[in-house]
Design brief:
Layout lengths: L8 E10 L2 E11 L4 E5 L6 H8 L7 E7 L5 E3 L5 H10 L1 E4 L13 H11 L5 H14 L16 H13 L5 E5 L7 H18 L2 E6 L2 H7 L2 E6 L2 E7 H6 L4 H7 L6
Parallel strand pairs: 3-8, 3-9, 6-7, 7-8
Antiparallel strand pairs: 1-2, 1-4, 4-5, 9-10
Helix pairs in contact: 3-4, 3-5, 4-5, 5-6
């Protein structure tokens, strides 16, 4: 939590509909600096819609969504201009997709994928950019000798680690993650989870992580929100909710947890 104790991100009864279908209904939450929130539920529960609303990739139909900027000013994300929103994504925010190809430029080198985020902030010295990119590749356990290789030559786990490096190189305060370990085999998933947990702790990141896997939520998050049919049905400290769930739906999910 920040010294002032003020939330970094606040959602107040935000909702989204797709015609007659409810994507998300009256969801409220607060997220503080250094806090990790997991949003869990089965497919179609509304968790990915919520993540896209929080990151302003989808427009909310109703409610309020506020973000505290680095200067302490609280901004209404719904009224923020597109240029300012893009700047947030280059500086204060990161977004890790389940499919790393959506978050990478697959036809350029790994170094360029990391370096272009720095260039977006004004970095121009090639040597400095390359050195920083190399440091970050090594930080996410990618050998430095692979810096000039394109992501198409990488394994799935390496692509995901490269996507993480690309997002974190600009020292964001808030990272959104959509099923970051989805589609990976168990061994690769465990390695990636350890990496994410370490980076989040070392950098003091705030994060909102969407996952259907409660074992992932337990390992990475401080608090958890359980969604069903577009609504939050249970929320609280992660261990409390998973060890003593109130709702039958949460009990069913918790009973299916497998070791990661």
């Amino acid at each position: 939590m920040s010294a002032a104790g003020k939330p970094l991100l606040t959602a107040d009864n935000i909702s989204k509909r797709y015609g007659r279908q409810v994507g998300c209904r009256d969801v409220s939450l607060t997220l503080h600096e250094g806090e990790v929130l997991a949003v869990v539920g089965e497919s179609g529960s509304g968790k990915t819609t919520l993540l896209k609303l929080l990151s302003r990739q989808l427009a909310i139909d109703s409610g309020r969504l506020n973000y505290r900027m680095r200067d302490g000013a609280v901004r209404d994300l719904a009224t923020m201009g597109d240029a300012e929103h893009r700047f947030l994504f280059r500086t204060d925010w990161g977004y890790v997709h389940q499919d790393a190809a959506q978050g990478l430029r697959m036809s350029v080198s790994a170094g360029a994928n990391v370096g272009e985020r720095l260039m977006a902030l004004g970095a121009r010295h090639y040597g400095t950019i390359r050195t920083t990119a190399t440091d970050w590749l090594e930080r996410v356990e990618i050998p430095a000798v692979r810096i000039d290789d394109t992501p198409v030559t990488y394994s799935g786990g390496m692509r995901q680690r490269l996507q993480i490096a690309r997002n974190l190189v600009t020292s964001p305060r808030l990272v959104f993650m959509d099923e970051p370990t989805g589609g990976l085999d168990v061994t690769v998933q465990a390695r990636l989870l350890d990496l994410i947990r370490g980076l989040v702790a070392d950098l003091g990141l705030s994060a909102v992580i969407v996952t259907h896997d409660l074992a992932v939520a337990r390992l990475l998050s401080h608090r958890i929100m359980v969604m069903k049919d577009g609504e939050v049905i249970e929320t609280g400290l992660t261990d409390q909710v998973l060890d003593d769930p109130r709702e039958p739906y949460t009990q069913l999910l918790a009973s299916s947890i497998l070791p990661v």
